[in-house]
Design brief:
Number of strands: 10
Distance between the termini: 74 Å
Oligomer: single chain
Number of domains: 3
Strand order of the largest sheet: 6-7-8-3-9-10
CATH architecture of the largest domain: Up-down Bundle
Length: 584
């Protein structure tokens, strides 16, 4: 219960701008409930006074009162539903936006805690579940208790002796509801995790559909999906069978209670101690009382499931973002591409025993071209991702233009450090729209110039629509090499102080790569270039070549220096030279 209260308190602010609407809906629900409670009393009077005394005038007047109450009930009922829906949708929109905004703030390290499929489920399925819970709470959490308490009081007022039937029925219903909720609560957590798992399988398959088809793994993927799908089905059935069984059991208790009331009530009517009209209204109230309990039970079960969803949403909202610029100087600007690594250590998990990067010391001058090579797993990509603070250093510091990178506001830092990552990502839309990610105010001529510099213009102009060609989701309409060149052009459009190419020419031919290197060397003299590459030819002409080995700097120097002094460099060089013409 404390967890539920804490969750309500945590999520209540997201009802902002919709609180008055929610309160108006609650008012409408209250009026609607009162109208429904008054109708049986009037009906009883029609039977016991109007019909008994053959008073037509009384019957007509009472009938008109019932019509009036029914009309008010109709209007307030519809209004309650409309405003509850409006408030819950607004609540869901606010919650979804807050969660999405939070995801945008997270560092790579924060995001690594969640799988993409889990974040998608939390933004969609879980938020939708909270919307429904909000709507149900506004409409039924008010209506059910009000109907229950008011109908119980009126029943006791009509006939306290007959109302003793509730002493058995109400505790029995409460016990059944409590046991059901206790049994299904842990299953809802499992259910949401299974939805995550299913989404993960679907997402992975759709992203890698070309690989699936090329390796003829369709049957394997279908089997994998079927296994997860059947597992989700099994968990869902386990949950809902328990919930479904609740309804017939409660219906039996309701019907048994009604029969008991009719039996004992009929005996009282026969004895002349109870009037038939009062018995009729009493039966109406007993149905309302028991239906209120049933309604409340379904609300509680839905809230129990919503608690699982709410907990998952709050888990994202309450992540402590490990990279912030709260203490940064908003007026500090980057005016050069000088980079210094000062005894930098890094590990993904602060509790890990071993560093991913250890004691990194580098001095990179503005305008230099730096080559970065090393074996797989030597942490090359990790090292460059520390510069724009995609990850935070564990110890030591990195300086850009003479200041610690933590002294810059993140937009300032990242606007001046352009990265072309290993996994090249393009978005739905045209080539021009994708390139303007680098500079949304770029002119058409600037876009063309950047594309020419990245050797992208030559293939763009072969498309019928040129720069207005739609790339499709993820850039499916271009090849891997074309995608790399578009990403390089996009980065160049930023006109950064530091340009990082993380194995970004691996899919282009040697002639195109040579042309891009020429552009970087002569066309971007004032920009610091850091090139991660597998091919020695990509970095041979660099001002400095850094060799990483197991997260440590093994050697730093020019191509000629390293051929003389570094065994690792010589090994890479001669293994690649075999069968190829290298200019030494």
């Amino acid at each position: 219960m404390d967890k539920k209260k804490g969750m309500i308190k945590r999520l209540y602010p997201f009802l902002e701008n919709y609180r008055l609407i929610a309160l108006f809906s609650i008012l409408c629900v209250s009026i609607d409930s009162v109208m429904e409670l008054l109708i049986p009393l009037i009906m009883a009077d029609i039977v016991d006074i109007g019909i008994k005394n053959s008073d037509i005038s009384f019957i007509i007047n009472s009938g008109l009162k019932m019509l009036g109450l029914a009309f008010v009930s109709l209007v307030t009922g519809v209004s309650a539903s409309y405003f509850a829906a409006k408030a819950s949708r607004g609540f869901g929109a606010n919650l979804r936006k807050a969660e999405f905004d939070k995801v945008q703030e997270l560092s790579f390290g924060n995001i690594d805690r969640f799988s993409p499929s889990s974040l998608i489920t939390r933004l969609t399925n879980d938020v939708t579940r909270m919307e429904r819970m909000m709507m149900m709470s506004i409409r039924m959490m008010i209506r059910s208790p009000m109907m229950f308490i008011s109908a119980l009081i009126l029943s006791i007022y009509i006939n306290a002796k007959l109302a003793m039937v509730f002493v058995v029925a109400i505790p029995l219903l409460a016990l059944i509801v409590g046991l059901t909720i206790k049994r299904v609560t842990p299953l809802f957590d499992i259910l949401q995790k299974m939805i995550d798992k299913l989404n993960n399988v679907v997402q992975e398959n759709l992203i890698a559909i070309r690989v699936v088809k090329s390796f003829v793994r369709h049957d394997y993927e279908v089997t994998k999906f079927d296994d997860v799908n059947m597992e989700l089905k099994s968990v869902s059935e386990n949950v809902f069978y328990k919930v479904i069984l609740l309804m017939p059991v409660m219906q039996i208790i309701v019907q048994a209670t009604t029969i008991a009331v009719l039996w004992f009530g009929a005996l009282m009517v026969g004895a002349g101690t109870f009037e038939i009209g009062k018995l009729s209204s009493f039966v109406s109230y007993i149905v309302q009382i028991l239906m209120s309990i049933m309604m409340m039970s379904m609300v509680l079960i839905n809230i129990t499931r919503s608690v699982a969803s709410g907990r998952r949403i709050i888990e994202v909202l309450d992540v402590d973002v490990d990279i912030t610029d709260d203490d940064a100087d908003a007026g500090l600007k980057i005016n050069s591409g000088n980079i210094i690594f000062d005894h930098v250590d890094f590990k993904y998990d602060v509790n890990a025993q071993k560093n991913v990067l250890s004691d990194i010391n580098l001095d990179i001058k503005s305008g230099q071209t730096i080559g970065l090579i090393g074996g797989t797993g030597s942490a090359k990509s990790t090292l460059v991702q520390l510069i724009p603070r995609l990850y935070e250093v564990t110890s030591g510091k990195i300086l850009v233009a003479g200041y610690d990178i933590r002294d810059y506001k993140l937009p300032e830092l990242r606007d001046n450090v352009a990265m072309v990552l290993q996994n090249n990502t393009l978005f739905s839309g045209t080539i021009k729209e994708n390139l303007r990610w680098g500079n949304e105010k770029a002119t058409d001529q600037e876009i063309i110039n950047a594309s020419k510099a990245a050797c992208a213009d030559e293939f763009i102009m072969t498309f019928p629509d040129g720069y207005d060609t739609n790339l499709g989701q993820g850039g499916v309409n271009v090849s891997g090499g074309q995608k790399q060149r578009l990403c390089i052009a996009r980065a160049m459009l930023k006109n950064p102080k530091v340009l990082i190419l993380d194995d970004s020419t691996s899919a282009v031919d040697t002639k195109t790569e040579s042309s891009i290197r020429e552009t970087l060397k002569y066309g971007m003299k004032d920009i610091t270039k850091i090139i991660i590459a597998q091919r020695i030819t990509s970095v041979m002409e660099a001002d400095q070549i850094i060799i990483l080995d197991d997260g440590k700097i093994n050697a730093v120097g020019t191509h000629d220096d390293l051929l003389k002094s570094s065994e690792i460099y010589r090994e890479i060089y001669y293994s690649q030279k075999e069968g190829a013409d290298f200019d030494e």
